[in-house]
Design a protein that fits this description.
The complex is a heterodimer of chains A (406) and B (125).
Chain A lengths: L13 H5 L8 E2 L1 H4 L1 H12 L4 E5 L8 E7 L4 E7 L5 E5 L16 E5 L4 E3 L6 E3 L4 E3 L19 E7 L2 E5 L8 H5 L1 H6 L9 E9 L3 H8 L5 H4 L13 E6 L2 E7 L9 H9 L25 E8 L3 E6 L2 E11 L2 E10 L5 H22 L2 H9 L5 E2 L6 H14 L2
Antiparallel strand pairs in A: 1-19, 2-11, 3-4, 3-6, 4-5, 5-10, 7-8, 8-9, 10-11, 12-18, 13-14, 14-15, 15-16, 16-17, 17-18
Chain B lengths: L25 H10 L2 H11 L3 H8 L9 H21 L17 E2 L17
Classes of the chains: A alpha+beta (406), B mainly alpha (125).
């Protein structure tokens, strides 16, 4: 479809004109390196905001559960589907002596109990999927002050949007999830995430602050240099369609269509599968909020779902980068890439090629993060100078600062 | 595995010299690529490329997950091509991704799975 772009402002400073309240001055590096600032982020962001922890399809059946480690909230949460089909979440902590009810095997632990119960292996206490304590071996030897009915699992707020499960560990009342998402939900809610039901996960632990890692993915300015290997001149350094939704933000990344690489393996993979971002797709199945003008150079939507997950959406592909703060100077990164389940060996092979190249691009992206953080620690530079196309980074600085100082 | 042990379907005898690249898991293929020389990566790429479409067409005869042992070898070689190709097509035969994070620190959750089985790479099992 031909595009009339005369109504789109592409001149320098366009995002600052659209969002003047964000300012244009340099931004401080202190929030990235100060341990005290991180403690405030834990208290006021990671223990108070809605955090994306699972997809509904990760707990598909009655009794299915996932345990997600949340280091930044000093806890792990059990997300479990009950006999009524509802999904609930609880701290993974036994009422007896505080042990983890479900033994965790890593950052994400999956399991299923057909009876819809979980049993703490320490002394065999049993909880159902509503969190009620239903069996205590040797119960008669507990004292009269102990009542099973008062000692279920400690719940956390749990709600779902577009198949994404969120929790909020604030012990008090919280803003409803839909209100937290606001316009972000309108913008992204109609995309068919479920259709892409075949996902790959890569992860690593980075010795840097979570915001250094998040920032590195939140602009396209770096693509000509960082991705000179895997995506040479494939994407434009300017972003389009920037929108802010409260603490959340989005933009679209564009292809340099004339530079799309043509190599034997790349071409074969693209002929046999829809799996790569560096290729134009055919007919669109996107909702009208994404690529509204039908531009043929539209590659993918790049968004940040506050606080620390990037959600990217393309035709028949979506992927996330989630940053789990472990310490002020340590972050777990998880990259998850979702495609429509393959139906042939050709498609499976095409997926392998796309995932290998995407993984290599992520290796290129992560290469700067620990170096940037280490250099920030020197104090030689105390500010960052951001250009207009780095507006998403500026927005994060403003939002984080506001929440930490609230 | 010696070349005489390596099974290929009729017509794919040209792939037998590449038996050592018939690696069923992503971790195996990534490791083999990182430990090879640029010259070897190019030799594999050039040797296998002419046969790649035929390999995929032949494996497409089977439902996903039901690839017989006779065909797993050639499919695994094709998967190794997917791993190797960027190094020949983009990175000028360098065996490591240039200007990249330490590759050994990236964990693939699916890394130990046999790819030909087409099981979900992430999520619950």
């Amino acid at each position: 479809m031909a595009t009339q772009s005369i109504d789109v402002d592409r001149s320098p400073g366009r995002w600052a004109r659209k969002y003047p309240h964000l300012g244009q001055g340099p931004v401080s590096t202190l929030p990235y390196i100060d341990p005290a600032f991180f403690e405030k982020e834990k208290a006021r962001i990671f223990k108070k905001q809605w955090i994306y922890v699972a997809l509904e399809r990760e707990v598909p059946e009655i009794g299915s559960y996932k345990v997600r480690r949340l280091d930044a909230a000093d806890t792990s949460v059990i997300i479990i589907r009950g006999k009524d089909g509802a999904i609930r979440a609880f701290h993974n902590a036994c009422s007896h002596r505080g042990n983890t009810v479900i033994t965790e095997t890593g950052q994400e632990t999956y399991g299923r109990n057909r009876a819809g119960v979980v049993t703490c292996r320490f002394h065999g206490w049993v909880y159902n999927a509503q969190g009620q304590l239903v069996n205590v071996p040797g119960e008669e030897r507990f004292y009269s002050c102990f009542d099973k009915a008062e000692n279920g699992l400690t719940p956390v707020h749990c709600d779902t949007w577009a198949g994404f499960i969120f929790v909020n560990v604030d012990p008090g009342p919280v803003q409803p999830l839909r209100e937290f998402l606001g316009g972000y939900a309108d913008h992204f809610g109609e995309f068919d995430y479920d259709a892409c039901d075949y996902g790959f996960t890569y992860h690593t632990t980075l010795n840097c602050n979570w915001k250094v890692a998040l920032d590195a993915f939140a602009e396209a300015y770096h693509v000509d240099t960082i991705h000179a290997g895997s995506f040479p001149n494939v994407f434009k350094p300017e972003i389009e369609d920037v929108e802010l939704f409260g603490p959340h933000r989005t933009c679209s990344v564009r292809l340099q269509v004339e530079n799309l690489p043509s190599t034997p393996i790349g071409d074969l993979a693209n002929a046999r599968s829809r799996s790569s971002l560096a290729a134009q797709s055919g007919a669109s199945s996107l909702p009208p909020t994404l690529n509204p003008r039908g531009d043929d150079d539209w590659a993918f939507e790049l968004s940040v779902l506050f606080p620390s997950v990037l959600v990217h959406v393309s035709e028949g592909i979506w992927f996330t980068h989630q940053f789990w703060p472990v310490a002020h100077d340590k972050t777990l990164w998880e990259g998850k890439y979702y495609l429509k389940k393959p139906t042939t060996y050709s498609e499976l092979w095409g997926f392998e090629r796309a995932m290998v190249l995407q993984r290599n691009a992520w290796l290129e992206d992560t290469a700067t993060m620990e170096d940037t953080y280490r250099a920030m620690l020197s104090g030689a530079k105390t500010v960052q100078h951001l250009q207009d196309e780095e507006i998403l980074i500026r927005h994060n600085c403003v939002v984080v600062e506001e929440m930490v100082n609230s | 595995m010696t070349h005489t042990d390596f099974a290929v379907p009729p017509g794919f005898e040209a792939l037998v010299p590449f038996a050592r690249w018939a690696l069923p898991t992503a971790d195996q293929r990534t490791r083999a690529r990182r430990e090879a020389s640029g010259a070897e990566l190019r030799a594999v790429y050039e040797g296998v490329l002419p046969h790649l479409e035929a390999i995929l067409d032949e494996c497409d005869r089977f439902a996903l997950g039901e690839l017989p042992e006779s065909h797993q070898g050639i499919f695994n070689i094709a998967l190794s091509m997917a791993e190797i190709a960027p190094h020949v097509e983009f990175y000028r035969d360098q065996p490591l991704v240039p200007y990249a994070f330490e590759e050994a620190r990236f964990i693939a959750v699916h890394g130990a799975y046999e790819t030909w089985r087409a099981l979900p790479p992430n999520g619950p099992r």
